[in-house]
């Protein structure tokens, strides 16, 4: 503990949750890693930094970014060419590393911090891969991180649902998984579909019966969404809808929202689920219809999964879709794995080309979604890193959202059929700085239940980013003037100045531990890891001196959630 | 995790113990411990586990050129050797995640080449992955689902000791009759095949041709000739039919028994066969064998540096070259002037080389020569907690401390060595304490 304050003086404080309007100048005090209330006269001010009217925001939060775990690591091994092209040497501060769209763990932390991001969430942690995922994330420096456990294709749950398990039994299981895997949320990926593929079924629609269990994706989806709501887990069910990437899948996306019937839920990488079948090529944008549905559904938040042009790799638990798309692999090599009666993993390298009709349309669809969804509190900036492109393209995407003429210049360069017919050119909307602060900070913090992050009010973790107010928003967001993590300066003008370790963010809802009486024999009779070895102890995360555990409080009846 | 050490007079046996001695990473062992810290596997371990768990926890000295020395002196001597090295290497890497991490950090400080003792087998799979990709399934999936195993290799008992008990013929299974999986063993040897299995004798040098012929047969084409690699075409046709008719077939292989010069070509052919079979039914590849946490060591290197082993770290960006940085070749050519060898687990025999060497080894590790410096280290999973990766690539398993350790961990020794070398600043914590 220190008794000295750090004073950030005279900045334009852009905190959509606070009272500051972002136009007048204000001061920010940091102390002991937190934002402090203005101190009494005579308090000791250690360091004073004059911001000269620069823009101040909370640290940015990436709600959906595949930054660690078995499938990301396999992607690194699959594409050594990427890592040969993008390498960095140790420099006394930084460990060496490599990679652009599957950067190595140290590089991941450094690049996020240099861009003003102070937390990122790995969205697809298979429970059977949880220990590996946490081991990897323990080597991602600086930022806080958390994981969503993937459920909905695990044979335990499917078998119990088919046997008519009560909602409360499912709730206990979901809560047990959150504890055992040290997760902060639950994601469902192609509910039932990954499992169905193991029974040699190649597609599963929302109301189609699973070939073995006879239950439908709708049933899996609504049961899990209800669980998280019942358990008071702040982040609602994180949903990767059925039929990813298939023309016409917009209907399953809208049906999914309808099936939720008001239950809170987060639909991820919505761009990949907003495809119609109009036009000569039977592939069209349904962004307007989807955005309209989201606008009418206050229980739904989304992230976009914007694509950016260039080489990347798609990495997903959705092996059913990835196997179907394996013919598109570029370069021509891919991985599909069936995993542990739990889930799957599919890796398909991909090159998005701006002159290709399909890719150009995907690009336009993503931007249409950003611009047509009205409430910035419910739509978040993602590329579904690395699926749509690397997280390092966020500054470019922010410019596309904030700068209409820049956007239209880019539109003019892509496939001419798309450019001519897309609605994008007719959309005038430009995001304001405040809206950017919402979609990259306050909004994700709210939907994740991070009460101490995403804002700059006293008591918040002192994750603070200071930007030069440049007309080129890409340059502005690529290289913030200062980045502070837990009150300590970690980057200056886009370059790292210090490193360290962030927290692992978890949630721990209450549950009836009697569920273990059912789980223990299941693990012994049907798994290849015993229950006690499956569960990750706190010490496994804490004992390495690489950051703490931060527990998100569960919601109570008095908490307002949308 | 330290609470595993009970204080009572007669410690109860420990159950669900993870075995670190091969890539199957069985986690169902029952281990008894006497007052002296002597361990004994009382249920579920294979012969290797029974032998290695029973190694006594000896207090052991460090040695400098064959003379007993204190740990401090040994570390000083090791640091002096490494400080002046022009072409250092850090090899062996048979250790838990933390031991491997510390070894890689040391290598990065030194500008050293890193490689695992068992990397030849590992790189058969890795090079195939980098050409064709892979289509695989994990132990847990196969235990419950696989109704046909086509296994290439030999000495399955040695390379994957509990494969048949745990995966092929488990006591219970969800989606197939538990004991009923059948299959084919393709490779040299003519011993009795396990129940339900048929042996097709062939030299594994022909594995690529056999797998290619099977791919053709699976899609209904007729390969030319009446034998491939010594196997009659009608026998191969039966294998192909079985793959086509299986609900979930497996094509498995013991990488260490494939053609040393072209194991990658065989695995590429296996992968093509698997992908071919998946056009109409389900099928998955299954790499088998491995020890010394080879796969885990490669994973740690991949996530920390973006590159697999057989890379040079710290001398600029990580530089990977599977041929140039094969440590065995470098040692044979005299291309290394100081070697750190890490052998905390089994599976990393100390190389027979005159290269000046710092050896960190579990007690009882045979040594061809007295190295410059020998520092005995604790065995992960017996003497200290940690984690390792199972060979099928998804599950990482926790290792526990089963007895009072008398030796330092490999990570502790490596970190102490790092501290003796010219420093770069260590990252500072933002916060000293955790929230919980
Ligand atoms: S098969 Fe391998 S992991 Fe299992 S008990 Fe034997 S040596 Fe240990």
Quick structural overview:
Chain A is α/β, with parallel strands linked by helices and 562 residues long. Chain A is built from 20 helices and 26 strands. The model of chain B is unreliable at 1-8 and 425-436 (pLDDT under 50).
Principal-axes geometry of chain A comes out as: globular
- End-to-end Cα distance of chain A, whole Å, is 37 Å
Major sheet characteristics of chain A: 10 strands, parallel
- Large-scale geometry of chain B: globular
Poorly predicted sequence stretches spanning 5 or more consecutive residues of chain A: none
Determine Rg of chain A (CA atoms, Å).
23 Å
What portion of the residues of chain A fall into strands of 2 or more residues? 15-25%
What do the pLDDT scores of chain B average to?
Answer: 93
Rounded mean pLDDT score of chain A: 96
Write up this protein:
The complex is a heterodimer of chains A (562) and B (436). Chain A is built from 20 helices and 26 strands. Chain A is α/β, with parallel strands linked by helices and 562 residues long. Chain A is globular and about 70 Å long. Chain B has 436 residues and is α/β, with parallel strands linked by helices. Chain B is 31% helix and 22% strand. Chain B is globular and about 70 Å long. Mean pLDDT of chain B is 93; it is low at 1-8 and 425-436. At the A-B interface, helix 1, helix 2, strand 7, strand 8 and helix 3 of A face helix 3, helix 4, strand 8, helix 5 and helix 11 of B. Strand 18 (334-339) of chain A pairs parallel with strand 8 (133-137) of chain B, so a sheet runs across the interface. Iron/sulfur cluster (SF4) binds next to helix 1 of chain B.
